[in-house]
Amino acid sequence: MNTLALATQYTFWITFCGMSAASLYFFMERSSLPEKYRSVATLAGVYTFIAAVNYYNMKEIVGLSGDPATLLNFPTALRYIDWLITTPLILLKFPALLGNSEKLDVFVLAIALIVLDVVMIVCGYFGEISINAADKSTGLGWALFVGSCIAWVLIIVMLFRVISVGSENKVKPIRRALNQLKYFIVFGWAIYPIGYLVTLIAPGPEVQMVREMVYNFADLVNKVGFGFVAIYACTQIARDEEIKAEIARM
Question: What is the 3-state secondary structure (H, E, C) of 58-125?
């Protein structure tokens, strides 16, 4: 039994439990939010539920044997399938929070973010497939790594430029949440290209196991944390509206 392998395998269970609990919480919170912001909770509940289903399957594959071979043979496609479905839903939180805006077409923003995100994920997947097949760094792996990073940077640039314009007339909790969520995309998502880069420059069984462990925790923090920040902002709006209504009745 390998201690590192066993610890990594347990993180798949931890992430599955965290995603499941978060999904239940987000769906339960939906009814307490202002009607126009309920889609924010719905999105959070949906993508954490999808992640929970995917992590259930992943934990079953890796098991709890402590055998490094099960992790080294972990199917890369499963993780990328999860990201391909969940990351566009995460990015849709921005248009959902922005709502209608005279200065911004949120539909165009949503389409642009989804397209860039799909490019980022697809490039990452085929790049890693190339590296895994050769069991070493490849030219295609480097090229697709660059392509994936360019798409990620474009998402960041778009968010920073668009959010500053589209959130000008929004209430303070929404402006604050939008600004905080941008940094999840900058710093939280940075874990993934770093993990990809590690496979390019430092392949090896221990590195791969550590990478899977870090990916698991990064997924949990990014998906659940992203949802909590957005829903907390909407909850503050609901409280403010209740206070105003109470004052008006006095």
Answer: HHHHHCCCCCHHHHHCCCHHHHHHHHHHHHHHHHCHHHHHHCCECCECHHHHHHHHHHHHHHHHHHHH
